Amino acid sequence: MVTESPRATTASAEELRAHVRTLRADADLMDGYARRLLATAATLSGCPAAPEWSRPTLERQAAACTAAADRLRTAARALDTHVLNGD
């Protein structure tokens, strides 16, 4: 059976700018999550009852959040450039 893909629609410049704002806001959230994870890791490092794996795991998760924030900002810049150039 063959199905037809829906036709792509063209987003207005204002819709694209809204996506840029959303991407940037999401990047800020991811940075906030990274800070919270690192703060938790620092708190647990002084706690003798905390499992040994907790700090490295939280630090890896924080790094993943930071990397995601960087990618979101890269996407926002690319989309913003697209809007500014009228591509």
Q: What is the straight-line distance between the termini?
A: 35 Å
Which regions contain 5 or more consecutive residues with pLDDT less than 50?
none
The secondary-structure element order is: HH
The average pLDDT score comes to 92
- Count up the helices: 2
**Cα Rg:** 20 Å
Proportion of beta-strand residues = under 5%
Instruction: State the helical fraction.
Output: over 70%
Helix/strand-derived category reads mainly alpha
Largest sheet: none
Number-wise, the strands total 0
Q: Quick one: overall form?
A: elongated
Looking at this protein, list some descriptive labels.
87 residues
Walk me through this protein's architecture.
The protein is an all-alpha fold and 87 residues long. It contains two helices and no strands. The longest helix has 33 residues, at 13-45. It is elongated and about 60 Å long. 11% of the residues are buried. The mean pLDDT is 92.
Question: What's the quick description here?
Answer:
This protein has 87 residues and is mostly helical. 75% of the residues lie in helices and 0% in strands. The mean pLDDT is 92.
Write the SSE topology:
Blueprint: H1 13-45, H2 54-85
Helix pairs in contact: 1-2
